[in-house]
């Protein structure tokens, strides 16, 4: 399963044995590189960046670290090792041998699933393309670029499946993945959260914490797929995804640590004394809470409608499972199972019991929410340790929703249904205002000296790959 680097496209899928496929992908490759030049990290193509590159798919020692110019990064096609005599583990085909090819009757649905996942990968690179110009340190700049090149590789992962298993349709979809662009008026990315801007580094950390975690849950559900190549592709993508969420979690923690430190040094007890905190050039805690509210609510929309017949179809067909499907001890058919979802009734949110098969989006969303809340508690420990009387909190899942049964309903962060007037009167306290965003933007300035950090963020406790914090992570040219 080692990766062949002597070929134009590094891979562990014996690409050279399938000349037609190899040619098709080698034809797509220059278009990908052109997209990277046009839409990838701005003004950074000549930098030498200390990046990890996959060299193996086994858990130990899968990555190599070294300085590389991003356009020379070896993007490739890597599938996790096959699991012997793997089966379809859920749905109506449960017990059958896992499919090594696309079953005809599931072709359209599988294509849709793969295209939707594939579309998010280049979208996030586009959303983050200006951030390098205002990086708070070399260490952070390197992490941004690492996330970017790996999202690029995730696009490769999906494009491989499209080319190999979906013929001409697949090749057309692969082209379209390079043509849609985040935020484009005429040809936007498929999912709304991937058309939002990532305008500053606080937004970047929140995005990698919350939205890359959506990636983790989608990939985990797809890694259960009965379509074995999709499962193996997603399993290896998950290995890379962990670092993206680390960048987000540690990034927010470092912002919090710095704010607390500066508050302490200056004897500021009241976290709501925003004016004094801002005068000191750090990000006030209420603004952090509003960024959290925004990214949390936009991200949980990505899981789709709470009641969905598509989700039921994908599950029953064996295409997309639940998070950790095979670790659950039910019948994996779910025909008789129910699930409690929330609905709006007489001006209040009430629980309602519905068939589980139709609520699988909600099941995945709830698993996601549990996982993201765990990190919020870890952030709160930073403030607790510093003796600052403020705690972050994930908003209620009905807050600021645009998809599903809460769309168009005004709900406070605590989960109370409110009037438009109450929403308007309070929204500045709940979601980042123009002024908040302008303040955060005003802090963004490029710090490029090794070992130096912008005033608003604490250094990390350790460097990347056991390198010192003042290591030259990026060599500029
Ligand atoms: Fe990704
Ligand atoms: Fe990611």
Automatic annotation (TrEMBL):
Family annotation (SUPFAM superfamilies): Ferritin-like
One GO CC annotation: cytosol
The organism's place on the tree of life at top rank: Bacteria
GO biological process, one term: phenylacetate catabolic process
Segment forming the signal sequence: none
Gene Ontology molecular function: any one: oxidoreductase activity
Name assigned to this protein: Benzoyl-CoA oxygenase, component B
Source organism per UniProt: Noviherbaspirillum humi
């Amino acid at each position: 399963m080692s990766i062949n680097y002597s070929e134009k496209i590094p891979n562990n899928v014996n690409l050279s044995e399938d000349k037609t496929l190899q040619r098709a992908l080698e034809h797509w490759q220059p278009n990908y590189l052109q997209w990277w030049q046009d839409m990838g990290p701005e003004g950074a193509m000549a930098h030498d960046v200390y990046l990890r590159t996959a060299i193996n798919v086994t858990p130990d020692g899968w990555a190599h670290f070294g300085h590389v110019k991003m356009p020379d990064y070896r993007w490739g096609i890597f599938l996790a090792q096959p699991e012997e005599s793997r089966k379809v583990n859920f749905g109506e085909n449960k017990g059958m041998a896992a499919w090594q090819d696309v079953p005809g009757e599931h072709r359209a649905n599988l294509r849709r699933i793969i295209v939707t996942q594939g579309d998010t990968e280049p979208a996030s690179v586009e959303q983050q393309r200006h951030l390098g110009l205002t990086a708070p340190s070399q260490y952070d700049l390197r992490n941004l670029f690492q996330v970017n090149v790996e999202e690029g590789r995730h696009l490769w992962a999906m494009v491989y499946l499209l080319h190999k298993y979906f013929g001409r349709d697949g090749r057309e979809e692969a082209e379209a993945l390079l043509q849609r662009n985040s935020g484009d008026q005429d040809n936007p990315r498929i999912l709304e959260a991937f058309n939002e801007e990532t305008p500053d580094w606080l937004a970047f950390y929140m995005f990698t914490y919350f939205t890359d975690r959506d990636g983790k849950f989608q990939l985990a559900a797809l890694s259960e797929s009965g379509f074995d190549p999709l499962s193996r592709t997603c399993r290896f993508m998950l290995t890379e995804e962990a670092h993206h969420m680390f960048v987000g979690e540690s990034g927010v923690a470092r912002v919090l640590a710095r704010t607390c430190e500066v508050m302490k040094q200056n004897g500021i007890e009241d976290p709501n004394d925003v004016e004094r905190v801002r005068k000191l050039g750090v990000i006030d805690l209420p603004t952090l809470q509003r960024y959290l509210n925004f990214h949390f609510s936009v991200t949980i929309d990505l899981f789709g409608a709470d009641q969905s017949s598509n989700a039921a179809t994908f599950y029953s067909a064996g295409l997309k499972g639940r998070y950790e499907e095979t670790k659950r001890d039910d019948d994996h058919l779910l025909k008789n199972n129910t699930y409690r979802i929330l609905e709006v009734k007489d001006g209040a949110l009430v629980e309602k019991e519905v068939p589980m098969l139709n609520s699988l989006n909600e099941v995945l969303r709830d698993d996601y929410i549990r996982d993201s809340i765990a990190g919020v508690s870890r952030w709160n420990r930073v403030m607790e340790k510093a003796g600052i009387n403020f705690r972050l909190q994930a908003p209620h899942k009905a807050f600021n929703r645009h998809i599903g049964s809460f769309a168009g309903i005004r709900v406070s962060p605590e989960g109370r249904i409110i009037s438009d007037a109450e929403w308007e009167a309070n929204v500045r306290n709940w979601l980042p205002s123009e002024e908040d965003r302008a303040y955060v933007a005003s802090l963004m300035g490029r710090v490029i000296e090794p070992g130096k950090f912008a005033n608003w963020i604490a250094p990390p406790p350790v460097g990347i790959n056991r390198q010192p914090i003042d290591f030259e992570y990026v060599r500029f040219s």
